[in-house]
Design brief:
Strands 3-2-1-4-5-7-6 form a 7-stranded mixed sheet, with helices on both faces. With 235 residues, the protein is an alpha/beta fold. It has 2 domains: 8-168, Rossmann fold; 185-234. It starts with 7 loop residues before the first helix and ends with a helix. It has 8 helices and 7 strands.
C-alpha cells in the first residue's frame, strides 16, 4: 500500500469523504489517506494526527515526498488534540482501531466536535460500543459498510450530527441498523464465525463440574439472536 494505491479498507473509507472537505485523519500512520485524497483533488486541506513517534515521522516523510506541505499538516498529538480551531475541520476519519478505542478518542476531547464534523469511523472490533456512543451524542448513522481484508473484517460507520438522537434497537446497536438490512458476504462470515465461537465456548463450559449458568444462557441467547437476524436477511 502507498499513497497511490490504498488498501481496500482505506479506499472504502476515502470514498465517503465529501468533495472539498477539511479533513482530520486521526491515527494517520503514513498519512496515506489524506495524501491520496489531496492528490486526487478531493480535499485541499487535511490534518494527519498521530500519537506514536514512528508513524508520525512516516507521515511527515510521506507529505514531503509528495510535496503536499501546503495541504496536509502532520500533527504529533493524542487523538483529537491534533485538531486546532483554525483548521476548521468538517470531516474526521478514524480507521483501523477497536470500537472502544475510537469511542474513547471521541469522548476524551468532545470539545473538538463542537462544530459537528462528519464522522467516518472504521472499527475492526467493538462496533456496538461505537454505535452506543453515537446514539448518546446525537449522531445519526447515514451509511454503513463491512468488508474483509487480509483475514480481518472491518466495518465502516458514517455519521452526521442531528438535533434529535437516533432511536436504535438492541439489534441495531449489535449488528448495525443498515448492515443487518443489507447483508453481504463479509457480514454473513463475521456472524457465522461468532456463532461457531460461541458454540465452542458453550461446549467447553458444559463439560465443567460447575458450569457458569449465567454465561451459558447469555451465549445461547446471543446465538439465537444472530441466527434470527441472519434468517431475516435471507427471507
Amino acid at each position: 500500500m502507498d499513497t497511490y494505491h490504498l488498501s481496500k479498507r482505506l479506499a472504502k473509507a476515502a470514498a465517503y469523504v465529501p468533495q472539498g472537505a477539511r479533513l482530520a485523519d486521526i491515527g494517520s500512520d503514513h498519512a496515506y489517506l489524506p495524501a491520496n485524497l489531496a492528490i486526487n483533488h478531493i480535499i485541499d486541506y487535511g490534518v494527519a494526527g498521530e500519537v506514536v513517534k514512528g508513524p508520525y515521522e512516516n507521515a511527515v516523510h510521506e507529505i514531503q515526498r509528495e510535496h503536499l506541505e501546503g495541504k496536509i499538516f502532520p500533527r504529533f498529538a493524542d487523538g483529537l488534540k491534533a485538531i486546532e480551531d483554525d483548521d476548521q475541520i468538517d470531516t474526521i476519519t478514524i480507521c483501523g482501531m477497536g470500537g472502544t478505542l475510537i469511542r474513547n478518542i471521541l469522548e476524551k476531547d468532545k470539545s473538538k466536535l463542537q462544530n459537528h464534523p462528519l464522522l467516518i469511523l472504521q472499527p475492526n472490533v467493538g462496533s456496538n460500543v461505537l454505535r452506543q456512543w453515537l446514539q448518546a451524542n446525537h449522531y445519526q448513522i447515514t451509511h454503513e459498510d463491512i468488508l474483509e481484508e487480509d483475514d480481518h473484517i472491518y466495518e465502516i460507520i458514517v455519521a452526521k450530527y442531528a438535533n434529535q438522537p437516533m432511536q436504535l434497537s438492541s439489534e441495531d446497536l449489535f449488528f448495525g441498523p443498515i448492515l443487518r438490512k443489507h447483508q453481504n458476504n463479509a457480514f454473513l462470515k463475521k456472524w457465522e464465525k461468532e456463532i461457531e465461537k460461541n458454540e465452542k465456548a458453550i461446549h467447553q463450559m458444559q463439560k465443567a463440574t460447575n458450569p457458569p449458568t449465567q454465561r451459558l444462557a447469555q451465549l445461547k441467547t446471543e446465538n439465537e439472536l444472530i441466527r434470527g437476524v441472519l434468517a431475516n436477511g435471507k427471507s
